[in-house]
Amino acid sequence: MKKTIFFLFFTFAVSAQQTQFSKYVNPFIGTGGHGHTFPGTTVPYGMVQLSPDTRIDGSWDGCSGYHYDDSIIYGFSHTHLNGTGCSDYGDIMLMPTMGKPSFNPKEYSSSFKHGNEKASAGFYSVKLDKHNIDVRLTSSTRVGFHEYTFNEAGQANIILDLNHRDKLLQGEVRIVNPTTIEILRRSEAWAKDQYVYARIEFDKPLKIAEVKSNGTTSTNQYSGTELKIAFTKLVKKGEKILVKVSLSPTSYEGAKLNSSEINHWNFEQTKKDAEALWNKELAKIEVTSDNKDQLAIFYTALYHTMMQPNIAEDVDGKYRGRDNKIHIADTFDYYSVFSLWDTFRAAHPLYTLIDKKRTADYINTFIKQYEQGGRLPVWELASNETDCMIGYHSVSVIADAMAKGIKGFDYDKAFEAAKHSAMLDHLGLEAYKRQGFISMDDEHESVSKTVEYAYDDWCIAQMAQILDKKDDYAYFMQRSQSWKNIFDWETGFMRPKKNGGWDKPFDPREVNNNFTEGNSWHYSFFVPQDIPGMIEAYGGKEKFEAKLDEMFSAESKTTGREQVDVTGLIGQYAHGNEPSHHMAYLYNYIGKPEKTEKMVHKILNEFYKNTPDGLIGNEDCGQMSAWYVLSSIGIYHVTPGEMGWDYVLPIFKEVKLNLEDKKVRILNKKTNKSTYQWLDTNLEEHSYKYPNFDVAKAVKEEDLIKNIIPVPTIQAANRAFKNELQIEIKSQNSKDVIYYEVKNLDQKSGDQIYLAYSKPFIIKESSIVTTYVLNNGQKSNTISATFFKKPNNYTINIKSTYNPQYHAGGPEGLLDGIHGTENWRKGDWQGYQTQDFEAVVDLQKTMPITAIKASFLQDQRSWILLPKQVEYYVSNDNKTFELVEIVTHNIDPKLDQNIVHSFDSNKKFAEARYVKVIARNFGKLPEWHIGHPYNGEAFIFIDEIIIK
Prior knowledge:
By secondary structure, the protein is of the alpha+beta class. It contains 20 helices and 56 strands. It has a 9-stranded antiparallel beta sheet with strand order 7-8-9-10-18-14-13-12-16. Strands 40, 42, 43, 45, 46 and 47 form a 6-stranded mixed beta sheet that branches. Strand 8 and strand 9 (133-139) form a beta hairpin.
């Protein structure tokens, strides 16, 4: 049979010389809308991202420092994040001005016009209108290169503002000589303790015109937590000042060493070198198209995937570790910025195809972070663990590399790190290990964490299988089935559980704190490790297809919390956020590839544009673009950790892959579908000969792993009750035998006596109900629920209206004797916004009152602030109320931690039947608050009212 794919034995360097792929890159794609990208200069995976900053207000759409809607530039800083949903970086900001220098951003900033702005791979330029200054920027890996042309004669200034964007923890400036400056900027933002050392070199001497410092000031050294310096020089019309800024995470010496990357003052040469680096990297995938916009979208997408992770070591290999100590990476390159919740899905699989060396480096970085920080990274930034997002998805990256045979890292050490990270007891893992799922009582975002932990556990199992660790393999394969414990066979959704049963009411469209940036639709199809099992759970292929169809055709509207990340809706599919990214490919698994093709092509054509708002959601460190790159060339990876790819018809006439084995793969319409599926694996050779080649379905070890028995559910009307409460226990399999035990809360521990369950039963005291099921000799995990008999028969009439997201079980939740914790996301607090809280408690009879208490919560980062004051009143007729006391507090609203505070009144009152509680809302968020730019209003969160 004639081969339909050819090996061409030449290196991709030849292609790079023939085609300047960087010319297709449009760095403005994603700088508008909610893309959160930046247009400035960087080189592939570079430490420096030198770009203009147009936003300094902390707003969400200003996370990268730049937004295309803006018309003011505040300066040019040397570090930026590509498409994140949290703000950080913006280090070492310089701004050229004329005349008398000012340190007020409103005064040193300048207007600009997009017509005077240009950007390409490795280059950015703009005219600053205020003083008619032309700015050109380029860079190497660790050095930013500025060229300022002053088109008017006079006093030229370069403002250095170390207080730009972040909170400055420690600033230092050393004047080495009139052309050289050394800087330390230690700051706090998303990364709580970030170190940036810098060396600034001017091509001509500058003087210090003005200094603003609240610390030590001497002739050649300045320090403080407020530090700004203006450098100045008289210039002629058209005179240029060139500036080079080298960065280091380790030391002044490191910054000096890194400055050797550009040892000349030839701006054009540096720009040319940067373009060459981009051409080399972009040439790894060559696509053929007559559509210029399509080429721009593709190569900008590929460009965006290569902007991070960022090299985070000096040229001699020194880096700052997770332990804040300086180490040397002598056998690998150390990187930073790992948005793993996003990038494990497509970006890292793409790297396994086109950048195996860096993939190994990433994993070596993970291992060092485990050794120095105690666990694998979750969302690492500048050697800080932000713990943003969920899962331990670095194991997905490791397992995928191992499955594809990538070498260059210690497999056993990587497995050790993965297992350790999965066996910790934080972030819901203790409950997950104990009962096989996470409930709302255990941890917020419980559904998302359960399903993502289960996938990660499957990845660890694959690693164990490769290393022949049979016990570990069996253990983690069992854990990988934990999704079954939160899948409701009756509704066909992953659902949150509370106190042993399903949380009610349930709306699969509702975005709430049981899910990570999404709703049940977005997580009910996340079982990439067991797609056949998921299809079976839905009732077979036809019902699964109908469920997918329902998702894509439903109303494109969510309920519950407004979630800015949920964009790009097709029904309930949300392409603007990562949990949905694999879903269109699930049609392939039920024999409907035409539906996968239709939906994937719709997304490719409608959600990616060659415009500033050309991304439908956050770029998220290359993930949004990686989806486009893979899907457009005809492949995707639904299950990283498995060898092979999912197939979809490519949108390009021809695709040429220039991979690290120095051989070229040419893919076109004549290429076998199976060649796409087994591309760059050890099965690729077989696919050339057999168009429908697939791996023989021999008995695998995982077929010998028994299916888990899903846990039963404990259902009751409420968690708290007055006189008695009916308890019902359900199991999802009719063949299950349910066993249960009931113990009073005050009962001392003793022998456990489980009874066979046959029908609902009644409890009349505060009790713990424990249950499990048996099926064909197999036992489920044991779960429990706690029910409280109310300490009184009080009732409450709430005059205010609580946010339906934060209902705490309704009005009676404020009198049930169950106290909320500092983790308000578990659902035990009632939330009120844009109003005071007011309620009247009916004690049912007149009685002496000795104390009144009400508990409130503060989490200022989430807009939840303590009330200004709480007022207590009493009455005998529920009409005329007498003030008992006004209780205030002195807790700082700026505190960056969660606080539960009880507003106590211990004034005795002779007799009363009614108690009124009024809590005065904090009101508008103040100017220092991150919500101030949105005209935000504070929440009041209240849980328990106690009257004695």
